[in-house]
Amino acid sequence: MAYFGTEEISTLPGELDLVTFGQRLRHLRRSRGMTLSDLGERVGRAPSQLSLLENGKREPKLSLLTSLAKALEVSVEELLSRQPPSRRAQLEIAVEEAQRDPVYQTLNLPHLKVGKRVPNDVLEHIVGLYDELRRRSVKPTATPEEARRANADLRRQMRERDNYFPAIEKAAQETLDAVGYRGGALSQGLILAMVSHYGFTLRYVQDLPRSVRSLTDTRNRRLYLKRESLGMHTPRTILLQTLGHFVLGHAQPRDFADFLRQRVEANYFAAAVLIPEAAAVPFLTDAKQARDLSVEDLRDVYAVSYEMAAHRFTNLATRHLDLVCHFIRNDETGIIYKAYQNDGLVFPTDDTGAIEGQRMCRYWSGRQVFASPDRYSIYYQYTDKPNGTHWCVAHVDPSRERNFAITLGVPYKESRWFRGRETTHRTKSQCPGGECCVRPPSDLASRWEGNVWPSARAHSHVLAALPAGPFPGVDETDVYTFLERHEMR
Ligand SMILES: [Zn+2]
């Protein structure tokens, strides 16, 4: 103990068997009922780094060994013992862990105390059955209602934290530091350096399954990716999102809510790496002082999509710029795909509190931009709403194959910090309450109600639950206006 405990010893005994060490480390951690994150927190390391150790992919530094031993309440010698944990010991822990799993608990079995007399093969059977139970219970999909509920819950958590997640910012900063990032847009070389820093290799393939953005072979630590962009996601965002799951120590999602949370965190990680807090905050602070804040500058400096720049702005705005704001992504028919606010904006919601899939007010900038003479230029607007006026900037990104409007908005008094505040566009909205635009104007309705059979366009997005109505998903006002326009032709 004293040998390893002394400060000046900085190297490990040469013959440390990394595989055995990893097994022992995992065994000790699990026997103490700790997750990778629990242990990571105690020793001040990312769960992903500990995972590398447990998989025998990385050699531990002495300082880390000391803190691991302390956290696990063993001596360093014991941690470094050449003896792999026995199968019996592994089985006992596996059965204990299984019984703590809610899936196992739904079986309502009395707790099994694994005494010395329970034979190994019985334990093997229990563990084998549990693994299969676990596999069958994994639900990567959810009913639309579960999905909407999970989404609403997640959005509430984001709002409570002003959409700022310090732990993920820290993980992103550590990743940037590890590859020597110096500022500006992130180069491809640095991204590749990050991949190898976490022990992965990258393979570009053409035959990636269509249902995935990327695939990771965790055994061989290989990341498979296609070269082309997939919808909103460029290869480097997909790559960083994928890496994010490992850096943040994500385990296989327990349910849809867990899946969703992980996806949001991985996306956050990718954005925090591409638009680093340490560099972006001074940049935005200067822009605010110059009363020239703009999403497009953030996009240009960090070479990201307009959507990512706008969304990243929401992460940093409240914490660092003292601004509340909102963010919306909607399609041309006004259906909301993604939304966030901590500035009091009232979104349309369904019974479960979900916003995704709802149709937003036709007088909001995210819909008005589609009607502006040049829909691809940056569009500014003031909107008078029941609880106040917002200033918003909306943009339809021309580089995307499908037209989505991205809106970033702030309360009226904060518009003074932004480029585009002198706009003369102004609309009034009563949504989501009152007679604004949810129902068609009564004169139109009285002429056309009952005389039309629209065939709705199918929405494939799982979260785009269709707004209720006689023809779900169909905007009656649009239909009636169309009829009105064409009747006389
Ligand atoms: Zn409206």
UniProtKB/TrEMBL annotation:
Record GO terms (molecular function): DNA binding
Xref: Pfam families: HTH_31, Peptidase_M78
SUPFAM superfamilies registered for this protein in UniProt: lambda repressor-like DNA-binding domains
HTH cro/C1-type domain span: 25-79
Top-rank taxon: Bacteria
Family annotation (PANTHER family): ANTITOXIN HIGA1, BLL7220 PROTEIN
Family the UniProt entry places it in: Belongs to the short-chain fatty acyl-CoA assimilation regulator (ScfR) family.
UniProt-recorded name of the protein: Putative transcriptional regulator
Organism: Actinorugispora endophytica
Origin organism lineage: Bacteria, Bacillati, Actinomycetota, Actinomycetes, Streptosporangiales
